[in-house]
Design brief:
195 residues; alpha+beta; five-stranded antiparallel sheet; four-stranded antiparallel sheet; 9 helices; 9 strands; globular; disordered N terminus
Length: 195
C-alpha cells in the first residue's frame, strides 16, 4: 500500500468522459488516491468484514462470491477499468455478505469511504461522476440478475460469451460454472458444442 499522487490515465479518461475535472479537483483526488497490489487467490475483502474502500482495477481480474452450505457461489467478475466494492457494505458501512478474491495478480487504486464522502462534499463536480458511475454499475447489476433469472443455462452461457468473453478466457471453469448456476460438467458440455 502506498500513497499515489498521479491518477492513472485510464481512470482519468473515465472521469473526463463524464465531466472534465478542474486541476484543483484532480490534485485533491491525487492526494487521497492510494495504490496496492493483490496476489492471485488473495482476498481483497472477506465476508463479515466492512468494505472501507472503493477500488479501481488497473490490472487483473477479481470475483465476488458468497458461501452457502460450504460452497462458494460466484456472483460476478470485475476486470481492468472496473470499480469494485461490496455495495451494501461500502455504502452502509456494515459487515459484508460477500468476499472479493483476486483471480489474477492485480494492481489497484483506491479511496476510502471517508475520503470519498469528503471529496463529494468539497468538490461538487465529482458528485456527478459518482452518480453516473453508480447508475452505470446499478444497470449492469440489474442486467446480470435478469440474465441469470430468466434464461436457460445455454442462453446464460451464450450471453457471457458474447458480452464478456474475457471472463471465459481468464477465469477457472469452476467459478464460471458457479456464476452460471450449473455444474462444471454441464459447462464443459456447452463449451464442447463450440457455441
Amino acid at each position: 500500500m502506498s500513497k499515489q499522487t498521479n491518477i492513472p490515465e485510464t481512470l482519468l479518461a473515465i472521469f473526463n468522459s463524464i465531466v472534465p475535472l478542474k486541476t484543483e479537483v484532480l490534485a485533491e483526488i491525487g492526494e487521497i488516491l492510494e495504490f496496492k497490489t493483490l496476489k492471485k487467490k488473495e482476498l481483497l475483502l472477506k465476508e463479515g468484514q466492512t468494505s472501507k474502500h472503493i477500488y479501481f482495477i488497473e490490472k487483473g481480474l477479481i470475483r465476488s462470491f458468497y458461501t452457502e452450505t460450504d460452497a462458494e457461489i460466484t456472483t460476478w467478475f470485475m476486470k481492468e477499468n472496473d470499480l469494485i466494492i461490496s455495495v451494501k457494505s461500502f455504502y452502509m458501512q456494515v459487515p459484508s455478505t460477500e468476499s472479493l478474491e483476486a483471480i489474477e495478480d492485480c494492481e489497484l487504486y483506491y479511496i476510502s469511504h471517508q475520503s470519498l464522502n469528503a471529496l463529494y462534499m468539497k468538490c461538487h463536480s465529482f458528485n456527478t461522476i459518482g452518480r453516473i458511475l453508480t447508475q452505470h454499475y446499478y444497470m449492469l447489476s440489474e442486467d446480470r440478475l435478469l440474465n441469470l433469472r430468466k434464461k436457460e443455462a445455454i442462453t446464460r452461457y451464450k450471453h457471457l460469451l458474447q458480452y464478456h468473453p474475457e471472463i471465459i478466457l481468464r477465469s477457472p471453469l469452476k467459478y464460471i460454472a458457479s456464476y452460471l448456476g450449473i455444474t462444471i460438467e454441464t459447462l464443459s458440455r456447452l463449451r464442447a458444442k463450440r457455441i
